[in-house]
UniProtKB/TrEMBL annotation:
Keyword Signal: yes
Protein name per Swiss-Prot or TrEMBL: FBX21 protein
UniProt KW keywords: Signal
Domain of life per record: Eukaryota
Keyword tRNA processing: no
SMART domains listed in its UniProt record: YccV-like
Organism: Oceanodroma tethys (Wedge-rumped storm-petrel)
Domain Hemimethylated DNA-binding: 129-230
Signal sequence interval, chain numbering: 1-21
Any one GO molecular-function label of the UniProt entry: DNA binding
Any matching Pfam family: YccV-like
NCBIfam families hit by this protein: yccV (TIGR02097)
Length: 240
């Protein structure tokens, strides 16, 4: 049954409370008992008629049900729009990947760490054109989310099908630019997510801490400007 709102409840109370008040008045101003009884009967009939029209009528309940369903659809519509925004970000290649560490070899699956800046190859010497370092906190220029750099490649290293989806013909040149692996800040509402994005799409920010379930695996602390790498990560990026 649809919910009775405050306005409907107030209307019912006013109708019911009007009966004793009107009856009391009729006792003082009626000329005799017969007239008072007639007046009271008319008041009761009129009040009951008004009550049934506003609260017991099928049309009245149908109108309330339509209003309730309309509000429900609006709420669901808002959720759908939020979902579309998130899906749009995913479709535009923001690399919220699941299982990208695995590559099929024959009939079995084997771990590969050559993609998405996960290679354990020591990055030394560090090319001068690599602007950013592991441990720095970044903000995405277009989407506004924040995160911390946990790895980089001198150019995009990913499966060919991923590269084709990420970089259509008009963006082919971006494949040969530095790419960074990012742990997305949980405070942005995306949960445990990782991104792999080109250098031109990020900018550095100071004084912002990142919250992510894997932070302690990569870093031992935060000095206010960047995160301090764990020893194993420092060996891979000795110049960062």
């Amino acid at each position: 049954m649809p919910h009775i709102n405050a306005a409907a409840a107030l209307q019912i109370c006013m109708l019911l409370s009007a009966l004793p008040a009107q009856y009391f008045i009729s006792q003082w101003y009626g000329t005799d008992s017969a007239q008072r009884i007639q007046i009271t009967e008319r008041l009761i009939i009129a009040s009951w008629s008004s009550f049934t029209k506003s609260c017991l009528s099928q049309d009245a309940w149908a109108d309330r049900l339509k209003l309730w369903l309309s509000k429900t659809r609006q709420g669901e519509g808002s959720k759908t729009e939020r979902g579309k925004v998130v899906n749009t970000i995913k479709e535009e290649g923001e690399n919220w990947y699941s299982g990208e560490k695995k590559a099929k070899i024959g009939d079995s699956e084997a771990e590969t760490h050559s993609y998405f800046a996960e290679s354990t190859h020591v990055r030394s010497p560090k090319p001068e054109y690599i602007q950013f370092s592991v441990g720095q906190v970044i903000v995405h220029k277009r989407f506004g989310y924040s995160g911390v750099i946990v790895g980089w490649d001198v150019k995009a290293k990913a499966p060919e099908e991923w590269l084709q989806h990420k970089y259509p013909p008009v963006k082919q040149d971006l494949k040969d630019t530095p790419h960074y692996r990012i742990l997305i800040n949980k405070a942005n509402g995306f949960g445990k997510s990782t991104a792999y994005i080109p250098e031109e799409e990020i900018t550095i920010i100071m004084g912002l801490e990142v919250h992510h379930p894997d932070m302690k695996a990569y870093f031992s602390g935060y000095d206010g400007s960047k995160y301090i790498m764990q020893p194993w990560l420092k060996k891979i990026y000795p110049h960062d």
